[in-house]
Amino acid sequence: MDARPLLPVLKATTSQRIIACDEACDEPQTERVSILLPVLNEVERLGDCLDGLIAQPQEVSEILVIDSGSRDGTPALVQRYRQKDPRVRLLDATPIDERWTGKAWGLYFGLLNSNSHCQWILCVDADVKVSPLLVRSLLAHSRATGISTFSVATRQRLSGIIEGFIHPALLATLVYRFGAPGRATRNLHRVQANGQCFISRRETLIKTEAFLRAQSSLCEDMTIARRLAECGEPVGFYEADALVEVAMYRHWRETWRNWPRSLPMRDQYFSWHEASGLLGVLLLQALPLPVFIFGWIFGAPLWVLIGSGVLLLARIGLLCGMRRAYPDRPWSYWLSPLCDLPAVLRVLQSALARRHTWRGRSYVRRKGGKFEAVVSDRQEPETIR
Fold first, then answer.
1. Backbone angle region of 67, left / alpha / beta, with phi > 0 → left and psi within -120 to 50 → alpha
2. Cβ contacts of residue 298 below 8 Å, gap of 6+?
3. Nearest partner of 125 among 385, 380, 357, judged by Cα
4. Which domain covers residue 28, as residue numbers?
5. Among candidates 381, 320, 373, which has minimal Cα distance to 101?
6. Domain of 64: which CATH number?
7. What is the pLDDT of residue 3?
8. Which of 57, 113, 121, 155 is most exposed, with the fewest beta carbons within 10 Å of its own?
9. Domain count across the chain
10. Taking 80 as the threshold, does the pLDDT of residue 249 lie above it?
């Protein structure tokens, strides 16, 4: 097992971050951007997202809101924003192709209908709030680094005290497996991605058929990134400070029920590399605290106490490093390592499960890591991620 990704860098250097919002780039760029925003029943939170998107400058040529069958007034809301800004355009992506998962279909449909004169594709989710300087800062970052495909680690807004325990413990499983943001790689087993804010050149996405390869994935952002890396494209993952914020879930129950669906990152690229990473999370994140406690109580050998104690200190260091992602963190954030064991077990349970329900559709994992929709079990669309 490669131990390097399991010994996380606790803080990215300034050069590894997209510039902070108060220093963000506001220099005009010559290239143009199409924004793809897949939605399904997002009327409650879409307004905040669109407010930030229509505040983007002229580099953004179009804001395509791709609707997969909303029944809650989302299309009417989009039309009201179109009256404010003609760059906003509603695309009806129904019916969803049965061979596709919902969001992957939305991205693919949006790409097919995007303006071919736009050199860049920026994918965002409805739950994000973006700075007016986001697009120019992303383009400036690409120009400065030479990396033209990357996503950002968003700041997190939590729903309350209980989610303050759960969310950081789940997020830590990613840091243990992949390390902190701040690099680009062509290794498909080491790439990181966040579909909440992902940018790439349009020609790159078309040439690699990255969206097409994600059609049967429940972690479409990672599958897209892995496909791009497979084709030799360096894929970056960076901090963005206050450029992007997200409230992923409205309640801790949604966090617990839905986020672990994608965290194992089971897709057609899943192999022993990813399996060993999950095992490493169990050994290095989940078990040190119970081993130390029970070892202390029952008189375990000194080497057991020292080893688990060192791992606990590393976990505390990671907790301090992750605090940047939670600017309005509740006090429970600092106790989130107490949830490491149940959080890791929940991720492992999701990794082993063959059947998942997401956005009102049921999926079964088939041979090769691809998910197939179970049409007979179709349910009413949900309003959660």
1. beta
2. none
3. 385
4. 1-385
5. 373
6. 3.90.550.10
7. 36
8. 57
9. 1
10. yes
